[in-house]
Amino acid sequence: MDFQCEELIIEDGEFGCTITFSDTKTSEVQYKTAEEIMNSEEKYLLIQRTYPEDDDELDNYHIESSETDIELLSDEIEIIVEIDPKRFKIQFPGAQLEIGLNLTNKELKNLERILKSRFKDIQRR
């Protein structure tokens, strides 16, 4: 397991959608000094889809983690996600991550709904 998710943040807006898994709660970060934040070993996974401005452009996917930073266009997307109540596993070109989950039923259902509606190109198992 790469890390245990302590906080799930989903931002769904007009220009895109972002899902962030973090091993640190946001409230804990506000009490750190600037030096502690810069030298932090926080683990996270960010999955982002931005919508194109023009109809003939492709959606843009961005996957960033404390381990890697990869940008994928929708025509070359090869992202596979496995999700259950205790873990989230994601495979994409160049990396594979597994995150432990401790989400409420509401958070888990919201995550599944967002993956299904906003990240249609991602294959789910």
Features:
125 residues, alpha+beta, five-stranded mixed sheet, five-stranded antiparallel sheet, 3 helices, 18% helix, 42% strand, globular
Order of helices and strands: EEEHHEEEEEEHE
What share of the residues does DSSP label as strand, in percent? 35-45%
Q: Cα distance, first to last residue?
A: 18 Å
Kindly state the percentage of residues in helix.
10-25%
Overall geometric form: globular
Number of strands: 10
Largest sheet: 5 strands, mixed
Low-confidence stretches: none
Radius of gyration: 15 Å
Class from helix and strand fractions: alpha+beta
Q: Can you offer a commentary on this structure?
A:
18% of the residues lie in helices and 42% in strands. With 125 residues, the protein is α+β, with helices and mostly antiparallel strands. The longest helix has 14 residues. A five-stranded mixed β-sheet has the order 1-9-8-7-10, with no helix packed on it. The protein contains three helices and ten strands; from the N terminus they run βββααββββββαβ.
